[in-house]
Amino acid sequence: MRAWKNMPGLLLTLLLVLPPVAGCSKETTPAANQSGVLTGTVRLGSSVPLWMLHGTMTVIVYMKGTTSPAYLPVAISEFYHPVFPVGFRITQKNVRLSGIDLKGNVRIVARLSLESPSPLVSSGEYTGMTPGEVPVGGPPVTLTIDHPSSR
Prior knowledge:
By secondary structure, the chain is mainly β. Helix content is 10%, strand content 37%. Strand 2 and strand 3 (71-80) form a beta hairpin.
C-alpha cells in the first residue's frame, strides 16, 4: 500500500521530465519540394467512370535523354485501388534506369488503368499530364486524370 502513496509524485515527475508529444501522425501538407523530389496531387475528372477506381494509378516521370531529344520514362510510382485525390512523392528511389539522376525539367503523366475480365465492367485507361515541363524540386504539381487514352 505504501507504494501507491508515492504514485502522484512519480507521475508528476514523469510529466515534467518527458518531452511533450503533439500527436501520432506526421503533417502531410507539402510546403516546398526538396531538391531531387517531385510532389503533387492527382485528381479524378468527372468524365472517368467510377468502376475505374478498382484499377491501378501510375505516376510516370519523363525526362529528355542526354543523347536523344525524346522524353524517356525514368521514374514510376504505383497506387492500387486509389482513393482520390491521391498525393504522390517521387524521389531518386523511384528512378528505374541506372545512371539517371532525377533533376532538371521533367514531364509527369498520371495513368489510371483497369483490366477487367468481366463482361459487366469494361477495361479502360485514362490519363492526365502536366501541360509542359515542371522543375524537379519545384512547387507541388496538380494533375487531373480526365482523358481516355487509346491502347
